Amino acid sequence: MPTRLSNYFLRTLREDPSDAEVTSHRLLVRAGYIRRQAPGIFAWLPLGLRVKAKVERIIREEMQAAGAHEVHFPALLPREPYEVTGRWDEYGEGLFRLKDRKGSDMLLAPTHEEVFALLVKDLYSSYKDLPLSIYQIQDKYRDEARSRGGLLRGREFTMKDAYSFDYTDAGLDVSYQLQRDAYERIFSRFGLDYEIVQADAGAMGGSKSEEFLHPTSVGEDTFVRSSGGYAANIEAFRTLVPADKDFTALPAAQVFDTPNTPTIQTLVDKANAEHPRPDGRVWTAADTLKNVVLALTSLDGTRELIAIGVPGDREVDLKRVEVAFAPAEVEAANEGDFAKNPGLVKGYIGPWGLGVDETRSAVLGEKSTTGIRFLVDPRVVAGTEWITGANEAGRHVFGLVAGRDFAIDDVVEASDVRAGDPAPDGSGPVELIRGMEIGHVFQLGRKYAEVLGLKVLDENGKLVTVTMGSYGIGVTRILAVIAELNNDAKGLIWPESVTPFDVHVIATGRDEIVFDTSEAVVAAIEATNREVLYDDRRKVSPGVKFGDAELIGVPWIVIVGRGAADGIVELWNRRTGDREQVDVADVAKHFV
Amino acid sequence: MPTRLSNYFLRTLREDPSDAEVTSHRLLVRAGYIRRQAPGIFAWLPLGLRVKAKVERIIREEMQAAGAHEVHFPALLPREPYEVTGRWDEYGEGLFRLKDRKGSDMLLAPTHEEVFALLVKDLYSSYKDLPLSIYQIQDKYRDEARSRGGLLRGREFTMKDAYSFDYTDAGLDVSYQLQRDAYERIFSRFGLDYEIVQADAGAMGGSKSEEFLHPTSVGEDTFVRSSGGYAANIEAFRTLVPADKDFTALPAAQVFDTPNTPTIQTLVDKANAEHPRPDGRVWTAADTLKNVVLALTSLDGTRELIAIGVPGDREVDLKRVEVAFAPAEVEAANEGDFAKNPGLVKGYIGPWGLGVDETRSAVLGEKSTTGIRFLVDPRVVAGTEWITGANEAGRHVFGLVAGRDFAIDDVVEASDVRAGDPAPDGSGPVELIRGMEIGHVFQLGRKYAEVLGLKVLDENGKLVTVTMGSYGIGVTRILAVIAELNNDAKGLIWPESVTPFDVHVIATGRDEIVFDTSEAVVAAIEATNREVLYDDRRKVSPGVKFGDAELIGVPWIVIVGRGAADGIVELWNRRTGDREQVDVADVAKHFV
């Protein structure tokens, strides 16, 4: 039986929704697929539900092919397991928390590592039970600060999350690869380009992680890619570290007055004008060392100041710093911080006076006057010379040599990443690309199993901790990405794998022969096992019907109109726009 | 491809879960269908998910047959729509409430009348768009005070909720009947007995409502049924009201000292001994009027005392009183209440001194000394004579006649219902039966549409308020009820309509011919389009395999064992226990 538009719960809209920032959101609302209920929270209308079911079916098929078993967990869970792993706090404001009538803390799960691990702990006890991969397609909750882009980043969203359980590292590698391969098949079936990039495991923890990023201008992530095959998201990018330099022949550092140098450029100009290097090399911004003071707030509320030294031609990328210090929060030091630390002379902060590593500093005869941790960009290797603050107002030190004149506490990936930066694997300069995360695979390792006590007996009867993987695909986000990629000025154009209907038959005109012919055409197409949306509305103009069809985006449209009297209908390819006159008797052949 | 037990996420348990109060809970956990995560909150394991999908499919088919369109709403919703209808407060502690990061109030929806109505308001505007029925199969949340019985009353549970929209009362009748008929088909397909009983609309409001109750000893509801066809749940039961009596010939009321009458029976005995009726009729407990003082607390916190007069042979049923005064909360008056109202002489409260209806009381020359509302059981009709309190310690009034000697403010259904009570429609005495609510249909009428402003233009271009129906089926509860009804001492026995697999094939023994034969049998059965669970485990004893099969409850079991060498297998009917020797070549014929 076809779905008849004369009796279908659908209302297409002429106006774009006022809050729609991206094309997919705009079109999915206008074409009657979804409807907003609250920021980042949507209801699914019949058309949308059909597409969603098809997206889920494809994911389900590939999960089964990968040997994963389907389960389904609640969204509403008790606090305790998340307390044990620390994520009850780590998630910060992103977690929806609530209390039940007895005052027990509960949460709306943003992801389910804890309870999957506990389920396996509950039921399994031997290496013979492993490997195991289980998954669910389920609604998740994250209280995003800014839920934007319709389904691209919702606060309630459907996700496929799978978890693997092994007792050896080699086993985890296999399970991980099975999911990774399944993801490649899934995205191919959706017709989605993707880049597999190295990712930072972030709050998930674990040892290895890769993201599937779909390159798109509406993407919220940035990743880098070299022509030689390196790919990583910005947070996971690692700087190509130069070799240490021989500093035996370098001149001694000197402190100069540097008034009126409010910017790096004015400082560099003054340096080249008044204090040129003896060997004639000019000073550049990259020769200055900018020491930025940041405040870290850990989960227990402890606030610590740190200083990060980066070359003056770079900026500190707070997102990268956040990853380095997760789950602590990072912000710029404020006036109060400076007031409390007179050793920090604003605008003239230098390595002297920073640092907590007294052993290393002592070798260089340094003494920390601030007790503040001093970390540097990986480019600050031994032997590099810098113009940097002298910890005195209006004065800088020139030719300060790392490893000779100052010590560091640690290296940190804090600088921004730029197009042209060399890939760390030597595969050439990188380009920067915007992308949308559509999948993420993690080797969690034993982190969760350890704290949750998930162990099995191995071949020797010894208890060993299980090693886990976690694999997520945003179901509703993928639907939006597909919509984002498949549309034109008139509306959506669905790929055949997820279209809500295979064929959209439109009866135009008032003659009964049109409707009789349409019924016959519909029946013939349905006999080929295709799903038909039949626009049988009697009092709607052809123009409105065509407009609705273009907006809704079923890839094939059959127009039954005046030609019906001569046994002719029109077959319209929504994607190419091609229209073809076809004998009524032959229409169905196009769908065999 | 069969599901192979050697590689399936399943662990059957020998021990009953300690918290299981009912058979379905015990067996579903032991057989590996579900797993508890928190009180009233369960995870679905692969077997359970298969059964749940089949239950949902049947419901979905019948909803489609009834012309309803499927949509899907979020569980997490904003407060506002529920504030408008008053249910944000009315739901009391049963509602899971939370705040998002911006401090906005949100809830986990217990039911979706509000947002369905708003969706239709959003999209539709004409009578031509109606009638419309839309439904979803979706997870709901209710913070039950006592979540018991596993899936029978969960705090997170799956429900099918449908809503109908009409613009005439006659239209609503038709939409209601379509859903009601669909429910009858659904329950028949599940093999569930049910009784359709009149129900009280309760917090849902509306004009007409019926419950589908499955008679079962684990049921939480009680309903009454007469042999003549009357059926109602206890809350909706209406007392057969006797006709008013002529009281012209009755003697005047008299007040007597009645010391040492702590119970109704002692009072009746004293009455018959010391103050017999002139006409010789004996006093019985049913001739005494017991006036019970209760406190109502309305949603805004206002507390009001009321007195309810019921025949002394009846008890006040607080659940029935609660329904009468919903959404106010009802409790017995406390010592403080009595202390504040000296007009209430505990143990001797009588109609004199009660009441707020001064007009009526004035006719009888009464004067309320308490200002407390006085309501009575429907049996207290004009002309009935009572022994009741005289509002003085140690004294009762005899032969106080309703409508002659005292006035009432209102009638209320407050007395308990007992087997043998006459049905209000004259269809004879009722019996009391315990049942489990498995479906509920409501004619909401215009209550929700009115406050939410859901109107459409009618044929005359006039704005008319839409009339709604609401229709719910507990998906997960039904699954539990089916399990509750289909089991024996060994385990579950699924009906064919919802069984996780159609056939369970067990290979017993170590010979390869057993496994080869099993594979052939599995393939032959699958060729008949049946789903097969294949126990191909090599190191598990036949006894354990049989035990698992009985516990899991697939209705047909094929045992491939020693007979395989002779081309013989055993076909086991799990329900009847019958076992039959069958030629390998003929097994599949049993499933054609």
TrEMBL record, chains A, B:
Residue intervals of the Aminoacyl-transfer RNA synthetases class-II family profile domain:
48-495
| Signal peptide location | none
Under catalytic activity, the entry for this protein gives: tRNA(Pro) + L-proline + ATP = L-prolyl-tRNA(Pro) + AMP + diphosphate
Q: What Gene3D superfamilies does the record tag this protein with?
A: Anticodon-binding domain, Bira Bifunctional Protein, Domain 2, YbaK/aminoacyl-tRNA synthetase-associated domain
Q: Is the keyword Ligase in the record?
A: yes
Say where the protein is mainly found: cytoplasm
* GO molecular function terms noted in the UniProt entry: aminoacyl-tRNA deacylase activity; ATP binding; proline-tRNA ligase activity
Compartments annotated for it: namely: Cytoplasm
At the top level of its lineage, which domain of life is listed?
Bacteria
Q: Which UniProt keywords apply?
A: Aminoacyl-tRNA synthetase, ATP-binding, Cytoplasm, Ligase, Nucleotide-binding, Protein biosynthesis
Enzyme Commission number(s) from the entry: 6.1.1.15
Give GO cellular component annotations, separated by semicolons.
Answer: cytosol
Q: Which InterPro entries match?
A: aa-tRNA-synt_IIb (IPR002314), aa-tRNA-synth_II (IPR006195), aa-tRNA-synth_II/BPL/LPL (IPR045864), Anticodon-bd (IPR004154), Anticodon-bd_dom_sf (IPR036621), Pro-tRNA-ligase_IIa (IPR002316), Pro-tRNA-synth_IIa_bac-type (IPR004500), Pro-tRNA-Synthase_IIa_type1 (IPR023717)
User: PROSITE patterns, from UniProt?
Assistant: AA_TRNA_LIGASE_II (PS50862)
Coiled-coil segments, which residues?
Answer: none
GO terms, biological process: prolyl-tRNA aminoacylation
The entry assigns this protein to a family as follows: Belongs to the class-II aminoacyl-tRNA synthetase family. ProS type 1 subfamily.
In the record's own words, the domains note is: Consists of three domains: the N-terminal catalytic domain, the editing domain and the C-terminal anticodon-binding domain.
HAMAP family (UniProt xref): Pro_tRNA_synth_type1
How does the annotation summarize its subunit structure? Homodimer.
Tell me, in a sentence or two, what this protein's role is.
Catalyzes the attachment of proline to tRNA(Pro) in a two-step reaction: proline is first activated by ATP to form Pro-AMP and then transferred to the acceptor end of tRNA(Pro). As ProRS can inadvertently accommodate and process non-cognate amino acids such as alanine and cysteine, to avoid such errors it has two additional distinct editing activities against alanine. One activity is designated as 'pretransfer' editing and involves the tRNA(Pro)-independent hydrolysis of activated Ala-AMP.
- This chain's protein is named Proline--tRNA ligase
Q: Can you name the source organism?
A: Cryobacterium gelidum
Taxonomic classification:
Bacteria, Bacillati, Actinomycetota, Actinomycetes, Micrococcales
